[in-house]
Amino acid sequence: MPDRSIRLLLDLIDEAFDRKAWHGTTLLGSVRGVGAKEAAWRPAPRRHNIWELTVHAAYWKYAVRRRLTGEKRGSFTATGSNWFDRPEAGAEGGLEHAWAAEVRALIDEHRRLREVVAALSPSALGRKLEGKKYPAAFTIRGIAAHDVYHAGQIQLIKRLHHR
After folding, report:
1. 28, 42, 51, 117 — which has fewest CB within 10 A?
2. What distance in Å separates the CA atoms of residue 96 and residue 132, rounded to the nearest whole number?
3. How far is it, in rounded angstroms, from Cα 69 to Cα 92?
4. For residues 13 and 4, is the Cβ–Cβ distance under 8 A?
5. Residues 121, 111 contacting (CB under 8 angstroms)
6. Pick from 52, 59, 61: which is nearest to 112 by CA?
7. Smallest Cα–Cα separation from 12: which of 154, 150, 137?
8. pLDDT per position in the chain (163 positions), as tens?
9. Residue 111 CA, distance from chain mean position
10. Of 35, 60, 46, 59, residue with least CA distance to 142
11. pTM listed for this prediction
12. Cα gap 10→7, rounded to integer Å
């Protein structure tokens, strides 16, 4: 059983991502039932769509995991960083297949991040991450807030799409 402080951080990232939470829809809950066409719809020109928000959230789970472990860049599913234009034209297997793969990547990145957090020692939580101003616990709390923030954006885009 993880230390109490580690358990609390795991609960926080899980409640933001896919567990029952008082704040409403989680990040994974916000994309549940969304099809590729809805995910690709933009509320206005040059605005992010649900698909891009989903990949962005997966990327930052990957980035935080890398920061916690000291891993070098290079293993994310897409080339680039932060924001990725989606959907890509001519995705193999069609849009639905490509969208499903991106949602799976988000789930996989959450699982990997969760494993890293669970393996941390309580003393590691207060240490600043290499090359960063902030300690591990601050960064982990931040990725949970990031999930909730983007879940709210996705919920808003869904409402705009269906009005």
Report:
1. 42
2. 38
3. 33
4. no
5. no
6. 61
7. 137
8. 669 999 999 999 999 999 988 889 999 999 999 999 999 999 999 999 999 999 999 999 999 999 999 988 777 888 888 999 887 544 555 899 999 999 999 999 999 999 999 999 999 999 999 888 999 999 999 999 999 999 999 999 999 998 8
9. 10
10. 60
11. 0.93
12. 5
Q: Are 91 and 97 in contact (CB under 8 A)?
A: yes
Token look-up 């409402």 returns 159
Number of helices followed by number of strands (H, E) in the chain: 6, 0
Residue 88's region, left for phi above 0, alpha for psi from -120 to 50, else beta, is beta
Consecutive H or E run containing 29: helix 27-31
Q: How many other CB atoms are there within 10 angstroms of residue 13's CB atom?
A: 23
Residue 1 exposed, middle or buried by CB count within 10 Å (0-12, 13-18, 19+): exposed
Q: Determine the CATH number of domain 4-161.
A: 1.20.120.450
